Amino acid sequence: PCETVNGREEPMPFVRVTMMPRDQEVRNALSKDITDSVMKHCKVTAEHVWIVFEEPPRTSWCIGGKMASEK
């Protein structure tokens, strides 16, 4: 998807956030902050900012050579 910026078609910003599972309140706060920042720096409206949260389970994470699920 594209939008028109300064008379040119530009791809819409798409932000992918990968993190350990968090509650909806955290995702809501992050999505607002990310959207505000992208709008400011990319000069786009909120409707043009796409965000996806990917939250693999703790059993899929390894940090410093140790499984996060074992910490």
Question: How far apart lie the N and C ends?
Answer: 41 Å
Integer-rounded radius of gyration? 16 Å
Q: Note the total helix count.
A: 1
Helix content: 25-40%
Structural category: alpha+beta
- Tally of DSSP β-strands: 6
Arrangement of strands in the largest sheet: 1-2
Chain-averaged pLDDT: 90
Tell me the series of helices and strands, N- to C-terminal. EEEHEEE
Looking at the structure, what is the overall shape? elongated
- Poorly predicted runs of 5 or more residues: none
Give an overview in words.
The chain has one helix and six strands; from the N terminus they run βββαβββ. The longest helix has 19 residues, at 24-42. It is α+β, with helices and mostly antiparallel strands and 71 residues long. It has one helix at residues 24-42, and strands spanning 2-5, 8-11, 14-18, 50-54, 62-63, 66-67. The protein has a two-stranded antiparallel sheet. The chain has a two-stranded parallel ribbon with strand order 3-4. A two-stranded antiparallel ribbon has the order 5-6. Helix content is 27%, strand content 31%.
